Every structure is written in C-alpha cells, then in structure tokens.
Amino acid sequence: MNLTLTGVGVSRGIAIGHAYLLAPEQPEINEYVLPKHLVNEEVARFKAALAAAKQQLKSIRNQIPRGTPASIAAFIETHVLMLEDAAFADAPVKLIKTQQCNAEWALQQQRDMLVSVFEAMNDPYLRTRKDDVDHVVNRIQRILANQPAHPLELSDHRLKGAIIVAGDLSPADLLLIEHCGATGFITEGGGPTSHTAILARGLGIPAIVGVAHALRQISHDTLIAIDGQRGEVLTEPDPLSLQRLRAKRREEKRHVVTLARLSKKPSITEDGRVITLRANVELPEDIHTIKRAGAAGIGLYRTEFLFMNRKDSPSEEEQFLAYTQAAKAMKGMPVTIRTLDLGADKTLHNEHWHISSRPPSPLGLRAIRLCLKEPALFRPQLRAILRASVYGQLRMMIPMLSSLQELFQVLEVVEDVKRELKAQGLKYNENIPIGGMIEVPSAALAAEAFARHLDFLSIGTNDLIQYTLATDRIDDAVNYLYDPLHPAVLRLIEMTIKAGHKAGIPVAMCGEMAGDPRYTRLLLGMGLTEFSTPPAMLLEVKSIIQSSRLARLTKMTRKILASYHSGEIAVLIDKINAAEKRGRG
What are the chain's domains? Predict the structure, then answer.
C-alpha cells in the first residue's frame, strides 16, 4: 500500500531501497534483592559487562576505514569514554552494594537519573545527549541479559542497498550500517542535534528521524524511498514517483559536487558585498569539518561539552587547553567562545553550587545568571579564555543578557580577572573583544544601549523566537507556534541589526535561522552581513549569498517588514527566493 510518512529530515539526499526493520528485543529489567554474600559477585558481573561493552565499541571503531575523518571515530570514542566515566563505572556499583540489588536494576536507576537531568535541559543539543545515555545503557543491558550481538554487528549481507527502519540508532549502529552498505535510515526517535544525526550528515547518509510508528507502518522488505531534505518517506512508490525521485537524486548529487567547489571561494554577493560566513562548533571534532568547508572562523564555540557527563566542573587548565587548541587550529581566524550556557538543570550533582531545589526552568537560573551567581564556576572559565587569547584571535561572547546591569557586572568581573592574571604574571590579550548574545526580547529592545558597551552582537534566534512567542519548539503541544517569520521576531532582529550599524559594531546571527537557506536572502535584505551556521549548512548558505543581489533584496525585504501576517510574509519569502533564482526582482 502506498503511504507517505513524515518526520524530521536530518541528512539530505534521496535513498531508494527495501526496508530492513531493526527492532532488537529490549531486555526486561527486573528488580530483586541479593543475599549479602552474592553482592561482590554481582559487582563483578556488572564490571565484566562494562568491559565487554567497551570491547564491542573498540571493535567497531577498529572497523572504520583508514583515511576516514577523525571526527567520525570520535563519536564512538565518546561512548567509550562514557563507559569509563564514574556515572557508569562507579555509580551502579555503589547502588549494587548499598541496595543489594541486581546489576540490571542498579544500571536502570542510574540511567533514569541521568536521563531526567538531560530532559530538563533547555538547550536542544544538550537535551538530546540523553540518547547517548540510552545507547550506552542498552548495550550493557543486552550483555547482562546474555542476548546475542546486535543484528547490525553481525554484518548481515541483506543490509546492502537497504533502508534501515528502527526505533533508534546509536553512532556505532550507524557506522555498521554504512559498513554493510545500507543506503539510508528512518527512526521513530532521535532529533536533528543527536550524535547519530550529526554523524549521518558527516557520512552523507540520507536520514529521517521522528517518524511516528514507523516500525508498525512499514513492512519488512517493502520498497521505500526517503527524501532526507523534506523529511518524507514514501512506501511502495509508483513508477512515476520513482522516476521523479531518481531525477532529484541525480540533481542533488550534482549539487553536492557544485557546493564542494565553493569551499575555497569567497562569500560575496553578486553586487560585490563581502559577507562574513563562520560556523558553529558543538564539539571540538567539528573544527575539522568547518575548516574543510572554508569557514572564516568560529562564530559560536559552545563550551558546554566540557561540563557534560561528570560530577565536577572542569578545571581552569582543562578549559585553557581546549580553548587554546581551538585557537591554534583556526590559525588566526576568529574563534568566538560563548561563556557557559548551562542552567540549574545541569548543576544538580555539584554540592558546592547553591542551586534552588525548585524544578529547572528556561526562565530560571541559567547562562550568565548562573555564572554571576556562582563565581567559582565563572571565574575559572574567564581565566582560561583570557589565557588562551594569546594563542589566536579569541573573542568572548556572553549568553542570555537581559539588562545593562548584568552586562556591567560581567565586565567588572572580567576586569577583576585581568588584574588577577596580571598580578600573577600570566599573559592575556588586554583588548580581547567581548560581545553579547541577543536572545531575550529585552536585550533586543535595548540593543542600542548594549551596542555602546560591547565590541559585537550576535543574535541567537533559537531562544529569541521561543521567548518572544512564549513557546517551546520541542513541546509537541505548542511547537506549531514557533515561527521565525512572526512579525514580532523579524522586528526584533531588524532592531538589533540597526543598533549595531548605528554603533559601528558588527552584528552576527548564530541561531538556526542563520543556517536555514530559506531565510538567507531575507536576512541579507535586512542588512545582516555576518552569519554563523551549522557546519553542514555553510556551503549551502554561501551558494545563496553568491547568487544574491543586495539592491534587489533590500527593496523586497521592506515589503516583508511592513506586513503583520506570518502567512503573507511566508509567501513573500518564497517570491524573494524564486525571483533571485531567476535573477530578476
């Protein structure tokens, strides 16, 4: 039966093949109390399962062909390191000993605790790290249950040319999928910022996640086609649909080759306006990717990865090393380090931080609010950034500013840390640029005042849209309200860009809107001249910049900003994009 299913396209491309349903049986987790004399034996059983899981992952890592970018192997290494972390290696052991419970139940309790912490996080990228917890836990649980190897680890020849349909996939699963010759995958769970999705984009495997009930609606061995850009799954496509999809696949392959040629080309509009195009870095491994894509630096270096999967905060030296490596890797190009954007939801393990016991809230103690409240957390990071600033063109960016008072507090702390470093004889860049993220409506409305005290501004559209429209884009009940084209959002963006121009400081955009090709021409017409995109979207955005003429865009954008209807604005956006493709206004 011909069906069209929809999900979230996370890796573009067309894949056509027979469905291979992958639904490995999940072990049933029972809870029981052990006699005291069997506790040590149970601890040994758990540790043996942990060692076996680590060996499985290392075996998969060793199958990665030579010459594969180091960032690919890094996803497997992340899971290996998680197995070595105290959260997995020690905490379940402690539960087995204190509760005299079986290993499976101890691991499940630890899993539930970790997942609850991640689910409470506001940042979508960090929230999906719960997937990594589940992938690691499921691997250990299968070993404890004496289940046979994961079907993908049997190198089944039937995977060649197939499209995998699964509940979820780990990065290790995905590497095995590619090794076995599968052409794409669909999952019921997962998200665009999961490690599996990021890896799929890096490997160029068409992928769609969040396809509800895919395992129930797609039969094994059914011919299916997926469009990784549109997020569409077509089952049993008719000959005409197959012909159309194959033509689109050929066109996309040509487009990918064309984009690759742009990596060393300048980012300039048709009428000669130079546009700065930088990239966002989620993990250090992304730096290799953005260098290959020809980014003009890092527009957003997220530091949260340093604080993940641990009970204590990273030391000043650990942070200094990470920032120094980024600065050196970019060889003189700007590296914009965002100070810590964590919330109360991610600090529950640290008994030294005086965090409220109330449930975490995106409107609560997070980002710069948390850092100002906890100097023991903030000052080591500032010291590390300042010390690393002598090794490259580092810039510091402050997230979630909402008032000038907050900014003045931050600048005072920075100056105090500088004096401290100077007294200790430690080198730093006295004139390190300091910028602020505009992601709270109050900051956008006061952008002129902020611009007078900062060296640059950067618009974080993800939070700006959510806070302006009072909607959580990850909450299925209200995410239909999340609209980048809402007139209020566009006016706040325009207000910020104008404030930067008036003060003579650069204004960038580092939110998802900057990496969405649908909005590139609109933003150019609004006067945005600095973009920071996800690495996978950089060349796509560059191609649009090169085929745009600012004179036409500025005129057409005025009509959009004069409208108060999102539907009308969306139609005008389509007209802008269509007109520029044809080369006429």
Answer: 3-23+150-242 (3.50.30.10), 36-144 (1.10.274.10), 275-548 (3.20.20.60)
